[in-house]
Model the fold of this input.
Amino acid sequence: MVRLYQSGIIATGSYVPDTVITNHDLEKIVDTSDEWIVSRTGIRERRIADKDMAASDLATKAAQMALQGSGLTASELDMIIVATVTPDMNFPSTACLVQRNIGAVNASAFDLEAACSGFVYGLIVAAQFIATGACRYIMVIGSECLSKFVNWEDRNTCVLFGDGAGAVILGRVEEGYGILSHILGADGNGADFLTLGAGGSRNPASFETVEKQLHCIHMDGSEVFKFAVRIMASMAEEVVKNAGLRKEEVDYLIPHQANIRIIEAARKRLELPEDRVYVNLDRYGNMSAASIPVALDEAVRQGRIKKDDNIVMVGFGAGLTWAACTIKWAV
Ligand code: ACO
Done:
């Protein structure tokens, strides 16, 4: 592919619902303890969407915030990509609902599903359209309402997840800035480790699927954990090398927020001090595709990321999938 333009993030936004569920709240629902959850995962609390709120509502709020920061109008967007495993419904896509909500009348819109790796997958897909000149501005959103798909009687999973959305606008940036390198990967042999088995064409919704809780997340935690530690560390190192950077040139790591021990594996491989890794999983838990863009938006708003900084984003998730990119911050 001939690259005509360099693409980078020119604005960010995020939204998390107001309702907080703490570990102590969960102690009243399942046989767990604040001590177990904090020591094994690093999570202290998570946000939960109201009954009448879906992924497109969270995504819309994050998108509006990103638009506000960009100085663009919604009609200037050429494309909207929503990464999600918790769409409002099978179809239409959540991206089309966001397009309607924000009035992005000139934007094409589609969802992308790569679980927790979905946001970085979306970013790299979007970058191809910017690079060729086919699109000028693309909104990429990670939005999840995982609380609606959690079995609140299963302590193995219900303590881990939360709801939220993060959005970025991708546009042209100066040469030498923007996305410098990326890695996208998948291994379908690990498909059974993390599933939401019912509601699709394999197991359409039925009384039986509901009774067996097949519309909820099922996870082999230790298999996912082993894979995640290995892939997060090796990807972080490789994506930095592919960008032509040395480890000491990395300014900030924005990892997927699943487990503090997994984040530590990536941080140690890059030999970064703790204050150069953004962690918010203590407040939000794992928000799947929303974790990285929410963390990115918070880091930008707190002034931790500045022009010229080299940022690394790394994520992994169901599929199994993994994705990473290096960005030289352009704004
Ligand atoms: N409270 C108390 N005990 C618990 C809880 C809980 N909430 N959950 C599990 N346990 C128990 C289990 O029942 C088991 O008990 P047993 O040994 O008597 O059978 C024991 O704790 C499990 O211990 P470990 O397997 O050693 O726990 P581990 O340290 O591996 O932590 C965890 C489990 C947190 C799930 C970890 O494996 C993990 O983080 N895995 C990765 C999950 C992940 O990152 N998923 C991301 C993808 S999400 C997406 O793509 C949508």
